[in-house]
Amino acid sequence: MAQITAGSAIFPRLGALGVDYVFVNSGTDFPPIIEGLARAMADGQRLPRAIACPHEHAAMGMAHGVWLMTGRPQAVMLHTNVGLANGAIGAINAACEHVPMILMSGRTPVAEGGRFGARTVPIGWGQEMFDQAALVREACKWDYELRFPEQIGPVLDRAHAIAQSTPKGPVYLSLPREVLCEELPAEAVAAPPTLRPAGVAPDPAALRTAADWLASAQRPLVIAQRGCGSAAAFAAFGQWASDWAMPVASWWATHLAIATDHPCHVGADPGPYLADADVVLVVNALAPWWPDKHPLAPGAKVIQLGPDPLFARFPMRSFPADLAIAGETAAALPALIGAMADRPPGSTAEARRARLAARPVPAAPSPGRLTKAQVAAALGHALDDETTVFSELGVPLSALPRRTHRSWFQEPHSGGLGWAFPAAMGAKLAAPDRVVVATMGDGSYIFANPTACHQIAEALGLALLVVVVNNAEWGAVRASVAQLYPEGMAAKTNAMPLTGLAPSPDFCQTAQASRAWARRVERAEELDAAIADGLAAVADGRLALLDVQVEPD
Fold it and tell me: Residue 493 has what pLDDT?
């Protein structure tokens, strides 16, 4: 009977589970994996594509981006504890956004000698930990350390199924080098997967109650933060909002749930509608409003709907839930819409429609000033509806028209910065015919380890537009100080210690080091032409970067 090592079995088994890519930052624990991969490639086996990533944060972000485009979980392999530590921020981001992925890292050999794969160099001692999985345990749904080679198939099956079960999220597998070097029968790896993900169907009684509340509401409000889950649900939700004249707010939206110019979209701020709402539907929103700023009307009923409507992995979250409906948004939201299908909208819908029509029109960004809003408006003129925009403390959704499913993604609320650039690269890898734009602040661009990202993009031929809105500071920190201490010394003197990033590096040279097209934009009148030229470079197959010097918000 043919034998293979456990390390050799990993890629074939991941392929059998439907994984497209394995994003890898390798180390001295990888020899059995690399040898097995080389043998499988020489044999012509069909395997997931191995992507070498010179930084772990890029690997995690790219796996996140592929998921957003395909809905299929991907795998990441890192080097022992040090690689896992660098990948931990990506795991936190994925956990916050319910993004499934299989995260693996080697474990320094246990044996100090006398066993194949035992320790050979000083890092074998230096990288050992009492509890390596603790680095990511709080961000992962499940973790395990491989004990025997014959476990590799069942363990990967279990990891894949748990990652995709509701609520979805990352899982972690530790891989000791000695175990990876041991053998198992090759035929065991070819067996069909033994486990399937577990979904959660919304409770029919809860759906009927929610439908009754919403249908009879005088002043309902919907707050949607993480999209609708699918293109079909996106279309159904937009139509339902129109039919019922349901106001929809997108407070800190990380995914688009409704077109920004939809007649029922009331913008990001739920405050004006929340103040007198009698029924509030919260669609997969971790923090649907600002408690100290947005008071809930007395007696208002709140419906929380989503894969984890109470967000159980967060220690404290006390937003009301008079009714909680659990289920993947792509299924639960259409189910709720269906439960309302036999109820006529009635006269209250017409009153809501009149109120929506009378709401103020947001002011357009002031021309002539280079601000984030002005950059957003210029991008809005240049991009079509199918372009996917990743924004991380970059351009605001309020100034950028977006109209389709998967056309907008914002940084996770976990705030692990450096996300947008690699996530956009993952999206472009998964959808090469789609125009992808990453826009981020200068601080976020630095956090992304841009040299590593540009190297990967050049190696893979990923042509996307990167827009750095550069105010030479951590603008979010400045805004937070001004928010908490509006009359404080920092605000009065406009001196904000610990927020400045001047002098700003020449980001164009960073991009050009990997042969990217790059341009610095300093005046508003240069912006439209620069965006057009950058998109033309992307169409020619090059990554393009714009370093746009913007004024502080």
Answer: 66
CATH superfamily label, 204-357: TPP-binding domain (3.40.50.1220)
Q: Are the beta carbons of 159 and 74 closer than 8 angstroms?
A: no
Contact 437, 464 (CB under 8 A): yes
Return d(Cα 156, Cα 165) in angstroms, integer.
Answer: 14
Every domain range in the chain assigned CATH 3.40.50.1220: 204-357
Distance, CA of 60 to CA of 243 (rounded, Å): 40
Reported as a pLDDT band with limits 50, 70 and 90, residue 362 is: confident
- To 5 degrees, how large is the angle CA 528–CA 530–CA 531? 65
Distance CA 290, CA 292 (A): 6
Judge whether 449 and 57 are in contact, CB under 8 Å.
yes
Give mean pLDDT, residues 462-482: 86
Split at pLDDT 50, 70, 90, the class of 364 is confident
pLDDT in tens, 373-406: 999 999 999 999 999 999 999 999 999 999 999 9
- Copy the structure tokens of residue 38: 């080389």
Structure tokens at 162: 């748990």
What proportions of the chain, in percent to the nearest 5, are helix, strand and coil? Answer: 40, 15, 40
DSSP per-residue string spanning 419-476: -HHHHHHHHHHH-TTS-EEEEEEHHHHHHT-HHHHHHHHHHHT---EEEEEE-SB-HH
Residue-wise DSSP of 86-147: HHHHHHHHHHHTT--EEEEEEE--S-SSSSTT---STHHHHT--S-GGGGTGGG-S-EEE--
**Dihedral (C-alpha) 5, 11, 17, 22: value to the nearest 10 degrees?**
150
Left (φ > 0), alpha (ψ -120 to 50) or beta: where does 267 sit?
left
Once rounded to an integer, what is the mean pLDDT over residues 428-438? Answer: 98
At position 31, the amino acid (one-letter code) is P
Would you state the structure tokens that stand for residue 232, as one six-digit string? Answer: 């079909």
CATH 3.40.50.970 domain locations along the chain: 3-189, 372-549
Query: H helices within 256-410, ranges in order?
Result: 271-274, 329-339, 346-357, 372-382
Locate 212 and state its tokens.
Answer: 């009754």
| Architecture of domain 372-549 in this structure | 3-Layer(aba) Sandwich (3.40)
For residue 253, which amino acid is it? A
Amino acid present at 288: P
Which pLDDT does position 402 carry in this prediction?
97
Buried b (16+ CB within 10 A) or exposed e, 65-92: bbbbbbeebbbbbbbbbbbbbbbbbbbb
Identify the pLDDT of residue 1. Answer: 60
Q: Is CATH 3.40.50.150 the classification given to domain 3-189?
A: no
φ/ψ of 515, rounded to 5, equals 65, 25
pLDDT in tens, 239-287: 999 999 999 999 999 999 999 999 999 999 999 999 999 999 999 999 9
Top-confidence residue, 501 or 148 = 148
